[in-house]
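Hello forum,

I keep getting stuck at the same step: I have a sequence, I want structure tokens, and every attempt I make locally crashes halfway through. Rather than fight my setup again tonight, could one of you with a working pipeline run this one for me? It's a single chain of 285 residues.
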Amino acid sequence: MYLIKKINILHKKIKLLKIQKHTIGLVPTMGNLHDGHMKLIALSKKHATITVVTIFVNPMQFNNPLDLKKYPKTFEQDFNILKNLGVHILFFPNLIEMYPNNMKNHTFIDVPKFSKIIEGKSRPGHFKGVATIVSKLFNIIQPNYAFFGEKDYQQLLIVKTLVKELNYMIKIISLPTVRLKNGLALSSRNNRLTDQEKKIAPNLYYIIQKTSEKIKKIGLHDKENIVYIAKQFLIKQGFFIDIFDIFDYKTLRIASKKNKKIIILASVWLGLTRLIDNKILFLKD
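Reply #2:
Ran it on my machine without issues. Output:
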């Protein structure tokens, strides 16, 4: 596995690989790798002849400096995982390499259709940071494919939108959320949960499932009450709720009785850890 830290060196390597008719798969990460990342890498290796994994904790997407400071950094462990998985290239730039003139005056990418609603409303600037770093990585690596998890559903829609509207010749392939046996969605942030919080955390997906089952039975005729009951359950379990609602899965507008393809989106805090999850539903007429 090649460990590359400089953009110009990566450019030369990618150019050579393209001349050799290789296809490039990109798996962007912020490190602290888990089974979800490994499944994305496996998916990349099925589609592309070369897999590039990036590790960069992007400050532009953190609206909370404390959250950035506490984000787990496990490079040595991550390096060994990627080497054992047969990843071809690990791109591990530092902050100056990615933002040589600091972030304050850096050109940015915004996807206004999705970036300021729902989670974007709660975390101002977050999706601007996501769209900017993803675009930079696309420009640097020029992949044929890029792989993202469906747990971060709003982020996935933003990436798909910028690829379409900025005319990137990249196929975005998503992976269904990877979970523990108890239903908890895998996330690098889960490491920050206390032992007691790890027992409580699976209740988030539990109530998403229960909400889904209720919607399948009665539809969206009593949506407000369905959402209220779910929120009350979470509050009693000890969650602080940022977002829990039902949306159109394409537009992310609040769902109405007419919607047949919907998504339950949840963003909550458990202690000092933010957890997100979702579930897509296709309702029958």
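The chain is about 40% helix and 20% strand. If your local run keeps crashing, start a new thread with the error log.
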